[in-house]
Design a protein that fits this description.
By secondary structure, this protein is of the alpha+beta class. The chain folds into 2 domains: 1-30; 37-203, no CATH class. The chain contains 6 helices and 4 strands, in the order H-H-H-E-H-E-E-H-H-E. The chain has helices at 5-29, 37-65, 67-89, 110-124, 160-163, 171-180; strands at residues 92-97, 133-139, 145-154, 194-203. A hairpin with a 5-residue loop joins strand 2 and strand 3. Helix 2 (37-65) runs antiparallel to helix 3. The longest helix is centred in the N-terminal third of the chain and has 29 residues, at 37-65. It starts with a helix and ends with a strand. The protein binds heme C. Heme C (HEC) binds at residues 55, 58, 67, 70-71, 74-75, 78-79, 95, 97, 100-102, 105-106, 153, 155-156, 158-159, 161-163, 186, 195-196.
Amino acid sequence: MHLTISQLFARITATGLLAMASFSSLAQDTAPQTIDPGLMQSTRAIATQMLTELGQKLKAAVSTDGPLAAVSVCKEVAPSLASTLSAQHGLQITRVGTRVRNSKIGIPNAWQKEALAKFEDRLQQGEKPADLEYWQVAKNSSGQPELHYAKAIMVQPQCLACHGTVQDISAPMAEKIKQEYPEDQATGYSVGKLRGAVVITRPL
Ligand code: HEC
């Protein structure tokens, strides 16, 4: 096929514009997907600290005051530990669930749902729960890059009194949960199942 000079020129310009358009949309949507290893390590350490401290407080509360009183550990201690860590490190840390008890703070957003779905897949493929973490770099609503980090929370034996099946949860506990969380969805779990994730949003 023969093209005149002006046809050829028009084609080249069109291709160039297309390329520019796709390049600029790429530049807008994707922030660089590399992250300083030190920052990654400290983010992971903060998530681990949240899980470890909660686990210890829960165990202590169950053994001194019994499981009913320990409900307040999950209810009050978890959010207050989360806000202390958030303020201390200049980030946002919270917990989300695969099924949720507190629908005000526990429902995962889009990237957190994606993280949970990936964790379920990776567990199916036999990956060790301790290795399950997920991260991405994204832009917030004002265009600033931020790190999205998630670490899996697995169901352990000491969780069953409050998140297990009907056999695991005592009648008074079921009653207390129903009173405090009428829309509770976070029961029926067994040991080794994915319960949710610690999620961190960190400005870069
Ligand atoms: C004594 C009862 C109790 C025990 C034991 C308990 N939880 Fe909870 N859990 C709760 C309550 C109550 C909430 C709702 C907290 C709130 O209001 O934010 C909750 C919320 C959560 C959430 C946040 C998402 C949601 O559903 O709102 C996660 C994740 C979670 N628990 C994981 C665990 C894990 C993992 C264990 C075991 C290591 C555990 N819990 C043990 C009572 C308990």
